[in-house]
Design goal:
This protein has 152 residues and is α/β, with parallel strands linked by helices. Helix content is 38%, strand content 17%. A five-stranded parallel beta sheet has the order 2-1-3-4-5, with helices on both faces. Helix 4 (106-114) links the parallel strand 4 (97-101) and strand 5 (119-122). The chain is globular. The model is unreliable at 1-8 (pLDDT under 50).
Length: 152
């Protein structure tokens, strides 16, 4: 597959940082349903997310993520801390990060954008609605958006 620049593009590596196994399952299902040419790598906390991105410890051989889906409310290292660290790092700040939140507090959304999130999705309560949101998200990011080359 080639992107708009004509460079060859393989599978898109997506890092999903989500501590709820049910949400992970729904996101995996939505990506499959959307026919996304992606590899979903799921971790359950912010500390593990940073290990994945920085290829530390058990994630020494992890691919560089092309896209991060980040739950805002995480155990250990928070989603906010992960976002701030990625966006403050010149090597990783170009990786698009979508914040995923179940919070109804508009301040959380505003705060995530102030910390340079590329998008913010509210988790739908109903599984079918959540699936549809993630399918639309996958279609947008995998067929419409031109993701940055990690080597640039």
């Amino acid at each position: 597959m080639s992107d708009a620049s004509g460079r060859s593009r393989g599978t898109i590596d997506v890092l999903l940082v989500e501590d709820n196994p049910g949400d992970v399952r729904l996101i995996e299902e939505a990506f499959r349903d959307a026919g996304a040419d992606s590899e979903l790598h799921a971790v359950t906390n912010g500390e593990e997310a940073l290990d994945f991105v920085y290829r530390r410890d058990d994630h020494a051989n992890a691919p560089r993520p092309d896209l991060v889906i980040l739950d805002w409310n995480l155990p250990r290292t928070s989603g906010e801390q992960v976002l701030m660290e990625l966006k403050d790092d010149p090597e990783h700040k170009r990786i698009p990060v979508t914040v995923l939140t179940g919070s109804q507090d508009e301040n959380d959304v505003l705060h995530s954008y102030r910390k340079h999130a590329n998008a913010c999705l509210k988790k739908a309560v109903e599984p079918d609605e959540f699936l549809e949101t993630i399918r639309a998200y996958a279609e947008f990011w995998f067929t419409t958006v031109r993701l940055p080359n990690g080597d640039e």
